[in-house]
């Protein structure tokens, strides 16, 4: 847009006594020319939408083939996604991949509101420990494969204090159960051990490593008779569960990930009693004091070896 010419101010300065100008030039100096805005007028954004008209001559840019190109299958119609020239599609031959972890355990969920409903109907006995065996037999859960996880859907509906033993539990569910005066214990299970429990060939939660931990308050214990030559009773570590004999023993975790999970107090694991004072649930990170003691022991052993190898 051409700028506006401000000549009046220049005319006044030129007509002053300091700059004498001819009188016939004064009218031209007082003229002003305003720039026109007619060339920049346009519609408001979105007021006009020009539709692409196809097949209206070569000058339009979409003439003749109307933007479809020359020859080929795509000129005459659409091609489905994944079309492979008439052959069997890749989705059929290779199948969909990804978005599912085939190694993840299949955990059956159970919510607190459903447990309370089953207690109200008399299907579950809240005075006894609730295990996956009671949950499966009462049809509170269906199809247990790798374990059971306690969730906190409608946790406010839980009114009865319960002692429940499951594979895993969410932090919200643990807080809701303990708020009502109950307890949650997470216990390690395998798919095979679950099948044995449901058949009645294994105990739902008792095992060798469970003795001395949170489950000891639930498992009835029996102490063998003391020896005849000593008046001392058998120590607590030698106590055994007073349970009927089962065909199979319930296994304890052997992998590092599972051991660390059930050693963690935050998960209410049944192996928390195996964690020593000052240690954490991790098997990899040792407490600082133990590391310092080990360094001292190694240094002393090296020093003794050097002293023993001296000839004089």
From TrEMBL:
<dbReference type="InterPro" id="IPR036227">
    <property type="entry name" value="Ribosomal_uL15/eL18_sf"/>
</dbReference>
<feature type="region of interest" description="Disordered">
    <location>
        <begin position="41"/>
        <end position="87"/>
    </location>
</feature>
<dbReference type="Pfam" id="PF00828">
    <property type="entry name" value="Ribosomal_L27A"/>
</dbReference>
<dbReference type="InterPro" id="IPR030878">
    <property type="entry name" value="Ribosomal_uL15"/>
</dbReference>
<keyword id="KW-0687">Ribonucleoprotein</keyword>
<keyword id="KW-0689">Ribosomal protein</keyword>
<comment type="similarity">
    <text>Belongs to the universal ribosomal protein uL15 family.</text>
</comment>
<dbReference type="GO" id="GO:0006412">
    <property type="term" value="P:translation"/>
</dbReference>
<dbReference type="InterPro" id="IPR021131">
    <property type="entry name" value="Ribosomal_uL15/eL18"/>
</dbReference>
<dbReference type="InterPro" id="IPR005749">
    <property type="entry name" value="Ribosomal_uL15_bac-type"/>
</dbReference>
<feature type="domain" description="Large ribosomal subunit protein uL15/eL18">
    <location>
        <begin position="109"/>
        <end position="185"/>
    </location>
</feature>
<dbReference type="GO" id="GO:0005762">
    <property type="term" value="C:mitochondrial large ribosomal subunit"/>
</dbReference>
<dbReference type="GO" id="GO:0003735">
    <property type="term" value="F:structural constituent of ribosome"/>
</dbReference>
<protein>
    <submittedName>
        <fullName>Ribosomal protein L15</fullName>
    </submittedName>
</protein>
<feature type="compositionally biased region" description="Basic residues">
    <location>
        <begin position="65"/>
        <end position="77"/>
    </location>
</feature>
